[in-house]
Amino acid sequence: MEYLDVLNDKGEKTGEKLSKCEVHDKELWHLAANLWVITPDHKILLQKRSKHKKAFPGYWSQAASGHISADETSIKGMIRETKEEIGLELKPFDLEHLFSFSKKDVFNGRKVMHRGRFDVYLACKIIDIDKIKIQPEEVEEVKFVTFEELKQMTLTPELMLPFPSEYPKVIEILEKRFATRTM
């Protein structure tokens, strides 16, 4: 059973640790992280969530994402989630923290309020997509997209996981960093 640290509305740990189910059932704030991966030739790695996921099955999303376990830093949790979901091994120095945000949403038409504090990371890596080992319970497939394809996908709500406050910031950061290069 996975346990999470409960956060207050400012994103600070309260000292309480509850199961992931309890945190969601009680609509409590908790820590999660998202990872964007870009290759040196400016291809962006995305994953398609498994059709068996409770929340947003079949939606495209960042290269990896997930809940951060109790007593785990977001960097360690993001490294763990990335290895579990797509088999990509990262080190802490591979991850650059871009920003954090809080998000409340209801999913699957249920009356479930998800309250997450997300740390967003970027990794610039050479990746052989044929060597990625997906975890079928979590991920259906992975693919590379161009910068323009990503922009279009984020404008299509039925395609991408709903992170409307994250996508514009990530796109802005990528535009600033890679504007002088071909994307």
SSE string: EEHEEEEHEEEHH
Roughly what percent helix?
10-25%
Distance between the termini: 42 Å
Mean pLDDT: 91
DSSP, total strands: 9
What is the general shape?
Answer: globular
Low-confidence stretches: none
As a percent range, the share of strand residues is 25-35%
Largest sheet: 9 strands, mixed
Query: Gyration radius, to the nearest Å?
Result: 16 Å
Which class best fits the helix and strand makeup?
Answer: alpha+beta
Detailed description of the structure:
The structure is a single chain. This protein has 183 residues and is an alpha+beta fold. It has four helices and nine strands. The chain has helices spanning 20-25, 74-86, 147-154, 167-178, and strands spanning 3-7, 13-19, 29-38, 44-49, 60-61, 64-67, 96-106, 113-124, 139-145. Strands 1, 2, 3, 4, 5, 6, 7, 8 and 9 form a nine-stranded mixed sheet that branches. Strand 1 and strand 2 form a beta hairpin. The radius of gyration is 16 Å and the shape is globular. The model has no long low-confidence stretch (mean pLDDT 91).
Short description:
The chain is α+β, with helices and mostly antiparallel strands. 21% of the residues lie in helices and 35% in strands.
